[in-house]
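QUALITY CONTROL LOG
STEP: pairwise intake check
CHECKER ROLE: data steward
CRITERIA: each record must contain a sequence immediately followed by its structure tokens, with no blank fields

ENTRY 1 OF 2
RESULT FIELD BELOW
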Amino acid sequence: MAKKEIPEESDEIDIDELMEEEVEEEVEEAPKAKAKPKKKSKAKPKAKPKAKAKPEIVELEDPMIVKKRVKRYIRTRENPMMVSKTIYSKLNDKLIAIVEEGCKRAEANKRKTLHAKDI
């Protein structure tokens, strides 16, 4: 009988071949996902776009000014002064009045944008 020669195993391992074999095994073992039948949806009538509602007039709860910056400005002037707590509410009221006056002027000029020239 003729003896089959068994090739000697080498210490070198080809990593690429091993990775390909592992990937092929994983692909074969992966379960196939079944395609779900699509459900027929009932067509809903499209709703008409809603008209934009005018925003409600809201009284401001928070001041429109930054107290810290006002205080810093007054204290760093050429003639620095102390700042009373009552100044902020009056300053806020004046600011609102100026903005309202500018808005009325813009509306009189048939614009919806408030510009510096309106103030």
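ENTRY 2 OF 2
RESULT FIELD BELOW
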Amino acid sequence: MAVFPADRPSTWPLQQVAEAMLELGGWFKNEFWNGAGTDGRINTKLITKKLESYLPADPDGVRLEDGLLRGWNVETRGPLARIPLLYGENGKPLYGVNPDAIYAADDGYSALLEIEGGGAVQNNRLMKDVVETLLIPGAHYLALAVPHPIHGRWPYEFAINLISALYAREVPQRHVRGILVVGY
């Protein structure tokens, strides 16, 4: 597990994801990987569903301007609105994203969680997640959960190298305050 930049302590949303993934370690080892299927496909929705109880929404049910609950909004609890990131003429949204979970705070989409499987490297999903987060105003943190080895590739290693290279070139520092990469 790695948090970037290393000199900045984790914020609460990233810390919640990190702690949840640690708690699920036994489940990954004993149940998830044993039931991954004979075709080697990873069902990331199972991971998202398992994370629900660790990523709470505001117990008072406070809804923010964009319709999200304050706190964690997880796709397996109910549909999430697309977060627009590209706009056309007259401010019309052209493209938006649906992360696996969103931590909504009063100052925006404080943190996004993306759980990737076998296509993290092969289908460029990991790179897509990072670029989309960089383009979303108010997205302060990104948590990426990626497999260690899958299909002869190492998405976790790729993610660490990609994020390290971006920070070395000072790409995310404009509004992304930190990125958590956790391998499973």
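INTAKE CHECK: passed for both entries
DESCRIPTIVE NOTE, ENTRY 2: The CA atoms of residues 40 and 151 lie 8 Å apart.
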